[in-house]
Each structure stands twice: as C-alpha cells, then as structure tokens.
C-alpha cells in the first residue's frame, strides 16, 4: 500500500506549514490546500511528492473539487487536517455582521463542510482521520484574537464530537487539537514584540508554545495507530486552561 495521503487546509503558512512539513517528514503524501495557491505550490515544490492547491474553504464546491482532484492525482485520500482560519482582533462590541459572517464562514462553516465532504469519502472506504484545529480561545472565552474567532473555535470542538460519533462505526476518527499562545508571527503581532517576554511570564509553564510540537500532535492523531482516539480535544496551552 502506498503512503497515506493527507490534505491540510491553510497549509501554506504559519501552523499549517509546520503541520505539512511534519506529515511529510513522517511519510505522508501531502496535498497543501490554501487560499494562497502560489505559496501552496511553492511549498509543495520544495518538499517534493506533494501538490499545492488554491482552495477557498468557504466554497463547498471547491472542497468537493479538491477531494476529487486529490483522489485522482494521488490515488486516494486518508487524512484531513482542517487548519484554515481567519483572525481579526476587533473589539467584541464592534464586530459587524459582515465581519462575523466572514470569520465564521472560514473557521467554522468551512471546517464543517470539509468534514462532510471528506468524511463521506472516508466512510465509504472504511478508513479516515480528521483533525480539526481548535483553540484555547474557544475554551476560555478569550477575545484577544476576536470574539468571533473564539466562538468559531468553540463551535469546532462541538462539531468534532458530533462527527466523531457519526463516523466512528465506519473506521473514521475525528479529533481536535487546541493550542494556546504559540511562538508565532500571529501571536507576536497581537502581543507586540516588546511585550512577548512579559506575556510569557503569565503562562504557567513560563513560555510560548512550540508550533512544531502542535504539528507532532496532529501527526499522531492522523496516524493509523490512533484508532482508539476519537471525539477528543487535545490541549496544549502551557497550563492556561485546565479541565
């Protein structure tokens, strides 16, 4: 059997790129799906044995086309990582209806639709792994990254459970990973470079998270050996939120 094929949305930048690189290093053949098709193609060319796809996750037809293209070009698909997300740090009471709709469309509706599109395919073949990217913000009600962002991530955790229950009997697992603040350009831009050290002191472990470790968590949940874990949300927040 050929190496398993993984689709990573939002895979060309940030945490998504870490996930793509980790999966590739572990032997997965990776389809890099991103709104930035040029960056997806460049990353795929660098890694080899991967393909880049320009995809808008808010377009269900585009997700269906992505699934069909990956199956045709790779000979199958076995893993979906829903990482595409949009963050806007607008004060809660100033979020407009249009902005709310846009953020929810990318973060939640896109994830939900992708779970349907790929989950149906996985169920039909009797095997699949879905990993959804949640966030500490969706657990503790944090609004630093936007109240709509936090709300969308909370909804993703609920969706993870309902899809896990629906697909469990078909050999498909559905899990979520919930990172806290990571040492990333996004977090540094929100906190401010001059404030990163002080910000990290407020995290119980005393440091920002490592995106490479988050990618390892995703790779474990995406692996064939993770068959007994489904409907779970794995936290990596440095002790900021305990449950």
Question: Any overview of this molecule?
Answer:
- The chain is of the alpha/beta class.
- The chain has one domain (5-178, 214-233): Rossmann fold (3-Layer(aba) Sandwich), CATH 3.40.50.720.
- Helix content is 48%, strand content 15%.
- The chain has a seven-stranded parallel sheet with strand order 3-2-1-4-5-6-7, with helices on both faces.
- α1 (14-25) packs across α9 (211-222), α3 (60-74) packs parallel to α4 (97-125) and α4 (97-125) runs parallel beside α6 (147-167).
- The model has no long low-confidence stretch (mean pLDDT 96).
Low-confidence stretches: none
Shape: globular
Coarse structural class: alpha/beta
Strand content: 15-25%
How many helices in DSSP terms? 9
What's the domain count?
Answer: 1
Estimate percent helicity: 40-55%
The H/E string reads EHEHEHEHEHHEHHHE
Distance between the termini: 40 Å
CATH topology: Rossmann fold
Q: How is the topology of this model organized?
A:
Elements: E1 5-9, H1 14-25, E2 29-34, H2 37-47, E3 51-54, H3 60-74, E4 79-82, H4 97-125, E5 128-133, H5 137-140, H6 147-167, E6 172-179, H7 185-191, H8 196-201, H9 211-222, E7 233-236
Parallel strand pairs: 1-2, 1-4, 2-3, 4-5, 5-6, 6-7
Helix pairs in contact: 1-9, 3-4, 4-6
Keywords, separated by commas or semicolons:
9 helices, 48% helix, Rossmann fold, 7-stranded parallel β-sheet, alpha/beta
